[in-house]
Amino acid sequence: MTRVALIAHDEKKPDIIDLVREYEDLLATFDLVGTGTTGKRITEETDLDVERKQSGPLGGDTQIGAEVADDALDGIVFLRDPLTAQPHEPDISALLRICDVHDVPLATTRTGAEYLLDGLALDADFDLDP
After folding, report:
1. pTM
2. Known binder of ligand: residue 119?
3. In this structure, are residues 2 and 26 in contact, taking their beta carbons and an 8 Å threshold?
4. Which residues does the record give as substrate binding sites (predicted)?
5. H or E, element range at 67
6. What is the CATH number of the domain that holds 105?
7. Is there a binding annotation on residue 55?
8. pLDDT-based confidence at 87, cuts 50/70/90?
9. How far apart are CA 46 and CA 43, in angstroms?
10. Which of 10, 15, 61, 103 does the annotation list as catalytic?
11. Domain with 108 in it
12. Residues whose CB is less than 8 angstroms from the CB of residue 54 and which lie 6 or more positions away in sequence, other chains included
């Protein structure tokens, strides 16, 4: 089964919820993992189940990076706030590096996330048309 990680900085959490709602039918066919707060918000605001790791400041992004190293993830959506990210929020540098090493796609913008999810839908032979 396709496995995707979902992460968002605080200011981008509404954006990831909007993205997840738009792609909910597709994401329902995937195994989802997320950092603590992002995963909690997604499960509270949609009908999706998300395996929750620790929150970002407690190492959730590192736990997700370990899944990349273990070849257990097919892609990551990390909607980050490049302008007002807080010191307690996860840093993308280590996650980006491990994704590059293991050739796992990582999207940091809404448009990039849409391309990533559309590509995974093609791999999963999922019909995106309603």
Report:
1. 0.92
2. no
3. no
4. 9, 13, 35-38, 55-56, 88
5. helix 60-69
6. 3.40.50.1380
7. yes
8. low
9. 5
10. 61
11. 3-123
12. 35, 36, 60, 63
